[in-house]
Amino acid sequence: MSVYRQELLLRSKDVDMFRRLRTSELFRLLQEASIRHTEQLGMGRDKTLDRGILWVLLLQSAEIARMPEYDERIVLKSWPGRTMHLLFPRYYRLETAAGEHLLAASALWSLVDEKTRKVVFPERYGVEIEGVETGEEIALPSAPRRMDCTKSRPFTVPYSYVDLNGHMNNTRYFDLAEDCIPAAAEGRALRRIRTEYVSEARFGENFTVSWGEENGEYFITGEGERPFFRMRLVYSA
Question: Which of 118, 189, 198, 212 shows the smallest number of beta carbons within 10 Å?
Fold first, then answer.
């Protein structure tokens, strides 16, 4: 059974002002685990990036029992699900070094042509990943349900948010969301996340971020000439 495993010690750069793992850093860790494990499975950059195709995230979800804290040792596990035509499911689990369950997550990845930005058939490039089943999988993510938005602000994608794919990195959407809504700055614990990446936002691109809240659940969306992302974040009371 092919399950990626990585032990980590959380440093000051990884946490927020409440000494809990920063949401964007959590998803950076998940993203890096996906990349590292894909490389271990023989599907590294020579199969993808060097041939002009890119891994992109479409949907993510997470169920959080507790965010780990500063100076805490954690174990990150990740494994692939069975490929669904053009979609590559991936699952994640975070535990303490002592085995305490912290969170579970899932994601759907796909491959796109670097020039056309269109989805490609993986078999044409020899990209094949065998899925495994551990019994610890949560449901695969679906699109977040919309909610009425009562507030909004303009946003321009800065240089520092852009990654090697030439667009705003998925992790930075969490920084943007938590800069807009009050729950994170109030220290409320994040419990559930569901995110849809609809289209890529390039350096310097402008869009409007809008958000609304119902009973501790927030809906955040970024839209301009086209939609960019949609997100639901649920916090404790």
Answer: 118
pLDDT band at 217 (very low <50, low <70, confident <90, very high): very high
Taking alpha carbons only, the member of 126, 152, 149, 65 closest to residue 101 is: 65
The answer to whether 49 touches 196, Cβ cutoff 8 Å, is no
Domain boundaries, the chain: 4-125, 151-235
pLDDT digit string, tens, across residues 192-208: 999 999 999 999 999 99
Q: Which two tokens stand for residue 12?
A: 């000051």
CA-to-CA separations, 48 to 34, 58, 121, 205, in angstroms, rounded: 14, 17, 12, 26
- Parallel, antiparallel, or unpaired for β 227-235 and 190-197? antiparallel
Q: Tell me if 4-125 shares its fold with 151-235.
A: yes
Structural tokens at position 34: 């996906």
Fold assignment, 151-235: Thiol Ester Dehydrase; Chain A (3.10.129)
Convert the pLDDT of each residue in 15-66 to its tens digit.
Answer: 999 999 999 999 999 999 999 999 999 988 998 989 999 999 999 999 999 9
Q: Which pLDDT belongs to residue 237?
A: 79
Give the number of other Cβ atoms within 10 Å of residue 96's Cβ. Answer: 14
CATH number of 4-125: 3.10.129.10
Can you tell me the distance from the alpha carbon of 146 to that of 230, in angstroms, rounded to the nearest whole number? 8
